[in-house]
Amino acid sequence: MLEILNKLKPGEIVLVEYSSKDDPSLFFIEVINWAELKKHQVLITDLFNRIELCLKRMKMRVPHCEALEKAKFIEIGYHELPEVNMVGFLRADRELPALFKAYRELFEEVVSKQFTVILVTGIERWILMRNEGIPFVNVLSTFLGDTRRIAFYFVNRDVLSGNNREVLSLLEDLATTIIEFKKDNKRKLVITKALNTDLEDYEMELYP
Questions:
Q1: Which Gene3D superfamilies match (predicted)?
Q2: Checking phi first, is residue 114 left (phi over 0); if not, alpha (psi -120 to 50) or beta?
Q3: Are residues 187 and 111 in the same domain?
């Protein structure tokens, strides 16, 4: 995994696509552990409390993850997250411009202190529940190229199939690198788009 993560560049938006039959929690943990190894701080931004499901799965696989305990959390959803290091909570029933302004203030406070690895979950929930795909992707695009951080956007591509497929295409267009969970005979990670040409068409078998 390090051979992938070490070749990513500051300022990137890395789109991590998985299906409903995949469990991205181990990759999620790998990214957090990599950030800890590099002495970067971690900011997890969650939409509509999607991270709660992910945290339960991670605890079943890795009961104690010191790097995760250090991570900072911003929740844009229904309620604050228990037992994590919350640095901000924004109710999701506000208009997008107001939410973005409030989030940006929290974001600036965090990334101004130290290089930050950002993990974003719940994007597909936002698209389904808010029905504002293009304005939301436009907001995400404002963070591209900010070399104080690198961001990983975790997206369930099955949820964004059908009527929301064009939103997934917009996210793919925005991303500088795309990592996809795929399955032939075995499950694997495939890089289908890369800012660093060394990563183009890279494949790696997933955990047994």
A1: Protein of unknown function DUF257
A2: beta
A3: no
Q: Residue-wise over 178-199: b if at least 16 C-beta within 10 A, else e?
A: bbbbbeeeeeebebbbbbbeeb
pLDDT at residue number 54: 74
Summarize pLDDT for 48-84 with one digit per residue, the tens.
988 877 777 777 766 666 777 789 999 999 888 888 8
Is the overall model pTM greater than 0.90, yes or no?
Answer: yes
* Cα distances (angstroms) measured from residue 119 to each of 5, 50, 152, 163: 13, 12, 5, 26
Average pLDDT over residues 6-20: 96
Task: Establish if 135 belongs to a structural domain.
Answer: yes
What kind and span of H or E run contains 30? Answer: helix 25-37
Q: How many structural domains comprise the chain?
A: 2
Count of C-beta atoms within a 10 Å radius of residue 91? 12
Give the type of residue at 5. L
Please say if the pLDDT value at position 184 is more than 80: no
